[in-house]
Amino acid sequence: MRAHSVLIASNRGPVAFTLSENGALTMRRGGGGLVSGLSEVVRDTDVLWVCAALSDGDRGAVRQAPGGRLDEAGNDTGPVRMLDIPPPIFHRAYNAVANSTLWFVNHLLYNTPIAPQFDTRFRREWESYREYNGAFALALAEEAAHDAKVMVQDYHLTLTPAMLRVERPDLRIAHFSHTPWAPPEYFSLLPDDVAAEVLSGILGADHAGFLTARWASAFMDCCETFLGARIDRGDRTVTYEGRTTRIGVHALGVNGEALRARAAEPDVESHMTAIRDLVGDRKLIVRIDRTELSKNIVRGLAAYREFLGRHPEWHGKVVHLAFAYPSRHDLPEYREYTAAVQRCAKEIEDEYATDDWDPLILNVHDDYPRSLAAYRLADVLLVNPIRDGMNLVAKEGPILSERCALVLSREAGAAAELGPDSLLVNPFDVSGTATALHEALILPEDERIKRGVRLREAATAMPPHRWFEDQLAALS
Ligand code: F6P
């Protein structure tokens, strides 16, 4: 087995496999923001990517690969080791702890009169999360060369850095959080020992990265409150049990050139023609999201409804294109949320649609070229998450539409860079969002263009390869 000098670890990997009825495996690119950013970085390099098998298709592929090394089984993947973690352990770690607990805490999503409830069932789930993190630590320890750099990604793998350090004290370890971080008053929902384990797990790294200064400082506050760690806010360091971890802020951006090139391809052009045929010369308000609780799609639709109620002069002259593609359907909250989005859309149609005007087009199927087409045609882009680590949609939109006005939640990490040139909203303020939609529609042309230039500059300031190189440099 070759030892690698740079390794990435993340739950979702660069590829995913589908098992057909006749048992054949088809490989495709893995989904999500983290994967697309990192895939661009590691293309044509020797970085080993360690990830989990997420489906029966993935497990089938791992079983055909020596030691889980997909590349060594003849797949055209680049160096990838996929871990076949037993399904019950994987599901408890991924669905119950990572997505239903840590994601909910860091995005402030709980309906607290009812949830969370940390009981004996949770303790079993937590044990699985430990095992899952341990499996990553073990694989990384096996694959890393002496003194290698290991880049551990996200809330799925908060315990891995500390576990890996025990196995391999020679390694230089980084952890990066692609989510927001909760303030101590909300992080305190977690049982004390779990809170401490998450924080000290990340502090096993030499460098802990965040997307904005706000999330980095919430993490430091939590380390102070729950671990009694020593914090140097000026130098951005946390010292705990004799070790110091540097805290970094790395605001992931977009490779504008690559995105524009992809959006100029014929499949995107034909979607643009189809959208134009559908909406004519009406103004277009666009949103593109995973159907994700934190994305605040229901309040976004409610705001559009209120806007239509307050502005009859826009009836027949505007269309809201809402793309909400499927996500995490193993979780009942997400299935219910998708239904709530569909209900809300139906109510808007029932109230306002006429024979020759469809005020809202909701689509819940993922179609990347169609999303790119929508960006290119957008007059207004609505990005109103309850809370978001960064939100790359807010950055991609202005890159593809020169005259698109951005209505942006002040709780998205992207607001730190894009705020001055956006119409910022409080995501809970439906009426305020309705007002912002109107202001965005009537924003004068020269103002759109001026803001667009600055938005594009900010959105492309830190393309994925620089973002990654900066973190590698921070480990040196
Ligand atoms: O925001 C964190 C993140 O890992 C994103 O990078 C990604 O788009 C999303 O969560 C994916 O979640 P999942 O892997 O559960 O679909």
From TrEMBL:
Cellular component terms (Gene Ontology): cytosol
Taxonomic superkingdom: Bacteria
InterPro entries referenced in this protein's UniProt entry, alphabetically: Glyco_trans_20
MF (Gene Ontology): alpha,alpha-trehalose-phosphate synthase (UDP-forming) activity; trehalose-phosphatase activity
Biological processes annotated in GO: trehalose biosynthetic process
Pfam families linked to this entry: Glyco_transf_20 (PF00982)
Record family assignment: Belongs to the glycosyltransferase 20 family.
Name of the featured protein: Trehalose-6-phosphate synthase
Species per Swiss-Prot/TrEMBL record: Planotetraspora mira
Higher taxonomy: Bacteria, Bacillati, Actinomycetota, Actinomycetes, Streptosporangiales
